Amino acid sequence: MRAILDTASGRSRTLIAVLLFSGLRISEALGLVWGDVDIRTGHLRVRHQLARNGNRIRVKTTGSHRDVVIMDTLARNLRRHQLASKHSKPGDFVFATATGSALSSRNAGRAIDRIAAEAGLASEHGGILAVRFRALVLLPWVR
Prior knowledge:
The protein has helices spanning 2-7, 10-22, 26-30, 72-84, 105-118, 133-142, and strands spanning 37-38, 43-46, 48-50, 56-58, 66-69. It is of the alpha+beta class. The chain has one domain: hpI Integrase, Chain A, CATH 1.10.443. The longest helix has 14 residues, at 105-118.
């Protein structure tokens, strides 16, 4: 985990930290808006996800609706990310492009794959998004 976090920077580092330490799927992380992030209480409200076509849609099942507790370090990282962003209103995407639209899963995947390769993490599945991010990164620590 340390290798990939040390290799990443900026928005990518924050996205990777959210994926690693919250357990969110990448579609759920990319679908977060600032109104879903409660830094004061340390919670992420998961109600939506980003569809492949770039639309923000409700998560597929009511069981997927959840509030995820995040550690203080991740909350502080998200707060710094929000302060640095031009798009930080409650309805703005947490992981936004320069124009304020949602970062696409394709572009996020490319960035994560590049960072993972630079960190020396290779995926035999053809890309880090082929399996759940945390499983790929954490699997070596379990063995």
